Amino acid sequence: MTFIWPQRVLSSSLKAEIRQLLSLALPVALVQVGLMAMGVVDTIMVGRVSANGLAAVALGNLYYFSVVVSGMGILMALDPVVAQAVGAGDNLGVARGLQRGLVIAGGLTVPLTLAMLPASSVLTALHQPAEVVPVAARYVWVCTPGVLPFLAFVVLRQSLQAMHRTLPIVVTILTANLANAGLNWVLIFGRLGFPPLGAVGAACATSISRWLMLGLLLLAGWKSLRPFIAPLRRDALAPRPLARMLRLGLPIGAQYELEVGAFAAIALLMGLLGTREIAGHQIAINLASLTFMVPLGVSSAAAVRVGHAVGRGDPRGARRSAAVALLAGSLFMSLTAALFLALPGPLARLYTGEAGVAAIAAALIPIAGVFQVFDGLQVVSIGALRGMGDTSAPMVVNVLGFWLIGMPVSIFLAFTRRGGAAGLWWGMVLGLAAVAIFLLARVRGRLGREMPPLAMDEETAEVRMAGKA
Q1: Distance of CA 314 to CAs 84, 131, 191, 201, 325, Å?
Q2: How far are the Cα atoms of 302, 322, 366, 381, 384 from residue 6, in angstroms, in the given order?
Q3: What is the pLDDT of residue 9?
Q4: Deepest of 364, 367, 419, 454, by most Cβ within 10 A of its Cβ?
Q5: Where does 93-208 show beta strands of DSSP type E?
Q6: What are the tens digits of pLDDT across the range 197-206?
Q7: What is the DSSP string of 442-456?
């Protein structure tokens, strides 16, 4: 079988697929922006208290997210497991996947919480400012009670997305953002009789908001979730299927860590160049992160749509879903690339009035424009592969692209060739381009072969194949 690109797909099928993809991708992108917004609001509100508090929140968030992102990645195994079960009409498979996801979330909470405890020692070893480290460490520790509800929220979110039920997630995120802002106002500044807690108050608000997110999502999505949560199934604790889900999810967790680690390393290297370079880098990466939320939503939608097609034994549908997702992601990122290339100065000045910082940011924003399309293609390709249950290839490609190609080139251009901040970013472009090319080739190859459904339980594949006979 060969890969079917968009121009070869019947127009009626193409239109239907575009509608299905966008109806899922746009709410998912909105949810991703909402999750980002909670951190942005924390940073802005603490910044009104003190510069040290602002630095502590930034440092604490970096440490916390670097730990938790691996757990999030592992739970992304739910995308193919639940989506393929939905596509196959296998309600038992959906229930098993969701409940096993909650079991894994509970199990991951222990090691991730333990990894939070040495925050002070780790930050000190990384030579972070001595006056900031104690507050940053307390921020991390106070955020720790929010690990369990956040991971459980991820399980429910991924499961609802696989069912095409996004409204409860959107309502939850919007409500949680309002609650987080209100709690920040009370706890950071000391309103309504509470003492002013500064950065630690933001951490308290974050932990409370994550418990609220879990409760709201259960409430808003209960009608869709109830058949798969109750009754609790004893086979959700079966060791072998849990191990299979972990084997599926661990490469995703490693891939997330590798990618986050690469961008964190670039930020640390930027610190060797100077304060203005750090600030300019932060502006450019913030803009790139914001636009990245849309292809990230398309990636999640691709995982669901391809997973549905694989589950129902429809390879042509899987190829069509992947092609439409890749087209949507690349088109959007082409538009943002044009914006970044055309208006770097005005975009930089939205963030700062300091001429030196704005000049560096304006030099980096067009480079961000160059890597926009590559970034969109690589993340959508990862989603399509995840829908097929292929999670190991993106991890290997991340090592090759970011760490063995991009990072050495960044260091060479920035320090040996004295290219400075722009040199670091051109290495990122090369790394992202390599990752995108490798992953596109992987998607094309996988879609040209048989796509057997995942089988967490021994009888699942036999039952699904019998149903298609």
Answers
A1: 11, 59, 57, 51, 17
A2: 15, 9, 29, 15, 15
A3: 45
A4: 364
A5: none
A6: 888 899 999 9
A7: HHHHHHTS--PPP-S
- Extract the tokens encoding 70: 């691996």
Nearest to 406 by CA among 382, 371, 360: 371
DSSP string, 194-245: PPP-HHHHHHHHHHHHHHHHHHHHHHHTHHHHHHHHSSPPGGGG-HHHHHHH
Alpha helices for 2-90 (secondary structure H): 11-47, 51-75, 78-87
Tell me if 117 is assigned to some domain: yes
* Site of tokens 């089988």: 455
- Buried (b) or exposed (e) across 53-77, using 16+ Cβ within 10 A? bbbbbbbbbbbbebbbbbbbbbbbb
Residue 458, pLDDT score: 61
pLDDT < 70 stretches in the chain:
1-11, 51, 458-469
The residue range of the domain holding 392 is 6-468
Residue 458 to residue 445: CA distance in whole angstroms: 27
Model's pTM, two decimal places? 0.85
Residue 120, domain member (yes or no)? yes
218: nearest Cα among 210, 230, 208, 226: 226
Is residue 405 a part of any domain in this protein?
A: yes
In a domain, 1, yes or no: no
The pair of structure tokens assigned to 247 is 């084997």
Dihedral class, residue 225 (left if φ above 0, else alpha if ψ from -120 to 50, else beta): alpha
Residue pair 279/421 in contact by the 8 Å Cβ criterion? no
Q: What pLDDT does residue 58 have? A: 76
Q: Give how many domains the chain has, as a whole number.
A: 1
